[in-house]
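sorry to bug you again but im stuck and you know this stuff better than me. theres a chain ive been looking at and ive put its sequence and its fold in token form underneath. id like you to explain what the token line says about the fold, in plain words if possible. anything you notice is useful, everything is just below.
___
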Amino acid sequence: MTKSLKKVIPILHLLLAFSLFGQVAQGQVKGDPKDTLSIASDTGIKKSSTDTTKKVRSNASKAALRSAILPGFGQVYNKKYWKVPIVYGILAIPISTFGYNSTWYNKTRFAYTTRVTKDSANFPNIAPELQPLSTSSLKLYRNEFRKGMDFSILGFLLLWGINIIDATVDGHLKSFDISDELSLRVVPTISPAVGQMGFTATLNFGRQKSSK
């Protein structure tokens, strides 16, 4: 075998491969059964992906609704039981501050009203801690405790909202396995419309678990 013939043989192999590929692509365009099977398979994959997405959204919606009704209920639905005491511990902070501010608001308001109206009969009923204070100081403290009550209510609502968001996020992640696994899959694909070959790259961050 001469050197020139050795050079020609690989070229012939390449031309033969392209010829076979063109025939396969042409057969798929004309209605090759393999093409129908491929389309059916792709449809099944898309349908399965859509069903999984609906299940994930359903889990998130149910968890959000439960946490909106009762704090911690969504965490229980997501089986994150360890979060329940944290939720109630955090919500207890604005509740306790509201109670503290409410108690002293009532005391300072009573003391201020008694001083302004000069109701001498109720002077002894003013809290001992407030009796040395002037009328202007009582008014200032009354307003500050009133602001403290308002901020406590806002804080409670904000934390309740965070509780709902946390349950929603866990509901989305409930059907997924978050792991350190990272893989790249490259699959050759054929486009029946134009008869060209390409590659599809899929980056995988973890395996998806079935939603129960």
Observations:
- The radius of gyration is 36 Å.
- Confidence is low (pLDDT under 50) at residues 24-41.
